[in-house]
Amino acid sequence: MTYLNIYQYAIKHNFRNVKHVLLVCSCKGGVGKTFIACGLAKALTTRSKVSVGLLDLDLYGFATHKLLGLKDLPKYEKIEDVTPLKINSIYYFTPALLVQDRAFPIHGKYREKTVLDVLAGIEWPSIDVLIVDSPPGIGEEIMLLCQYLQDKVKVLLVATCDVLAISIMKRLETVLDDLKVQKLGYVLNMCTECPPDIERTLGGHVLTVIPQLDEVRVLIQAGASPYVSERVMSYFNDLAGKITSLLHL
Amino acid sequence: MHEWSLAHGIVSSLLDLISSGKLKKIKYVKISVGQLVQIDREVLFIALQELSRETPLEGTVFDIVEEETTFRCNNCGHVWSWREVLQLLEREVSDSQMKTMILEAAHLVPTSIFAFTRCPNCGSPNFEILTGLDVKVVEILGE
């Protein structure tokens, strides 16, 4: 039997109107990928007037809806045209739209299929940037996006500024180099004291350094979005300016 | 996957077989759809016909068959069917909006079913989908 890869054509078709796929990734969990992905989506939309999509591909730990402060998540009642939702000018899809706040206990062997179904199932409108929040590590999400959308994928690496996180991050960087996708640079998050040679270690590609911001924790614990804080958004506005420049938007 | 996205993927990959020289003409294509995906076979058929029009696939016979979806518990070994899942949903989920949401989620991303069901025998979330998870092209006749 001839093996037909139905997915590759469906994915290319669904992403045909997306200019750039900005993959937010890291090797370690808890460094703030989701925080960066959502904040950047907000800043690109509101300050830079760029058309933005946000795709949460963290199947086990999806949390973008929480950080965006969405209290009542809309339900897909009838999937007619399979377009993402539009929330505050951001085109948006998260597994939470499928399973709400339930756990998604999928076996590893079904993970690839699940990612492919999400990619092949949602038709994105004409947008400048689709930000993808990925789970930690180099898994199916990164591999499949790079495999099917290599010409569109650009990577934003997120790390904390400690030596351990940076050294693990450098490993991911070598794989991304071999996958031949463009790296836009690093965002260092929750920084307290950066090592003096960090810029050199990271090849001068640090776009933004975000310090430990107490209001982020306070706002999230209160069930609010951290992006209501002007101070928080000032870092993302700075990052958005650099991203639009790098992507020539 | 949605019927039209699916049809687009199938037609494009079949056309690829012709443009790459593996086949000159495709006469017959058999497509197997798992029950869990809840594909509307009529809509899929119309989409395949529509997308094949004025291409080398015009006139190709598309045969769409349904494959039963079955599950097996990795904890107790119990095997059950999609029909039983539907009966359980009917019995245990009183909110009709929730029922619709579960079915629509499985239509778009079939593995979403892991979030909503457990083994009916022992309650374990650790089960696998034995058959009927995918949409596959299972037979192509051409020259």
| Strand content range of chain B | 25-35%
Number of extended strands of chain A: 8
Strand order of the largest sheet of chain B: 2-1-6
Radius of gyration based on Cα positions of chain B: 18 Å
Q: Kindly state the percentage of residues in helix of chain B.
A: 25-40%
Query: What is the CA–CA distance across the termini of chain B?
Result: 30 Å
**What multimeric state do the chains show?**
heterodimer
- Computed over alpha carbons, the radius of gyration of chain A is 17 Å
Dominant shape of chain A: globular
In N-to-C order, the SSE pattern of chain B is: HEHEEEHHHEE
Main sheet summary of chain A: 8 strands, mixed
Topology order of chain A in helix (H) and strand (E) letters: HEHEHEEHHEHEHEHEHH
**Coarse structural class of chain B:** alpha+beta
Backbone structural class of chain A: alpha/beta
Biggest interface, which chains? A-B, 37 and 38 residues
State the helical fraction of chain A. Answer: 25-40%
Taking pLDDT < 50 over at least 5 consecutive residues as the criterion, the unreliable ranges of chain A are none
What form of chain B results from the Cα inertia axes? elongated
* Main sheet attributes: strand count, strand direction, barrel closure of chain B: 3 strands, mixed
